[in-house]
Amino acid sequence: MMLNPFYQIVDDAKWLPRFLPLGLKLVQLRIKDASEEQLREQISYAQEQCHEYGAQLIINDYWELAIELGCDFIHLGQEDLDDADIGAIRSAGLKLGISTHDEGELERALDLDPEYVALGPVYPTILKKMHWAPQGAENVSRWKEMVGDTPLVAIGGLTVERAPDIYAAGADIICVVTDVLYNDSPEERLQEWLELSASQLDID
């Protein structure tokens, strides 16, 4: 399965009408602390937007709602895996991305044959408190050797300026949150990412 080399996480579907017309093709909806009704509205709206612009929507965590609402891709963290019904997820035809931070988590993830494996944080991140030290470019290379043909997503503290080194280290996809969402000009910053990632497609 072909995944775009740039992957944006948004915390609200309202970002999508701003970002998708620019050419964003891979987006995760990651919402915390919302009611089930709010989640349904957000997911349904995100589905409509992504369908209109031909983008791949990935739902973070809420696998039961994703199945019910007809989504086709979810992302689970290690804690999410503890409670998720992988059989139900696979039976529903959902593709699966999984977060990893150490070799034990990577082994667990690969046993589930995911569509991609994410490694983070590559650099220090302000988004949330992390129990793991920054992985650095060396670990990106090591992870890529271990995952083989499985697409590797690098996440955490990444910027346009740091991205070339991480692509060179072996990341197939770079995922960001704050570098775009917290930027003074989110659309302009996203455009920089899209231009950079387009050059990766040319290389590949």
- Through-space gap between termini: 14 Å
Number of domains: 1
CATH topology: TIM Barrel
Full CATH superfamily name: Aldolase class I
What does this structure look like?
The protein starts with 5 loop residues before the first strand and ends with a helix. The mean pLDDT is 94. An 8-stranded parallel β-barrel has the order 1-2-3-4-5-6-7-8, surrounded by 5 helices. It has 204 residues and is α/β, with parallel strands linked by helices. It has a single domain, classed as TIM Barrel, CATH 3.20.20. The chain has 10 helices and 8 strands. Its cofactor is Mg(2+).
Question: Layout of helices and strands, plus pairs?
Answer:
Layout: E1 6-10, H1 16-19, E2 26-29, H2 36-53, E3 56-60, H3 63-68, E4 73-76, H4 78-83, H5 86-91, E5 95-100, H6 103-111, E6 116-119, H7 136-147, E7 152-155, H8 163-169, E8 173-176, H9 178-181, H10 186-203
Parallel strand pairs: 1-2, 1-8, 2-3, 3-4, 4-5, 5-6, 6-7, 7-8
Descriptive keywords:
TIM Barrel, single chain, eight-stranded parallel β-barrel, 10 helices, 204 residues, alpha/beta
Give a short overview.
Pfam families: TMP-TENI. This protein has 204 residues and is of the alpha/beta class.
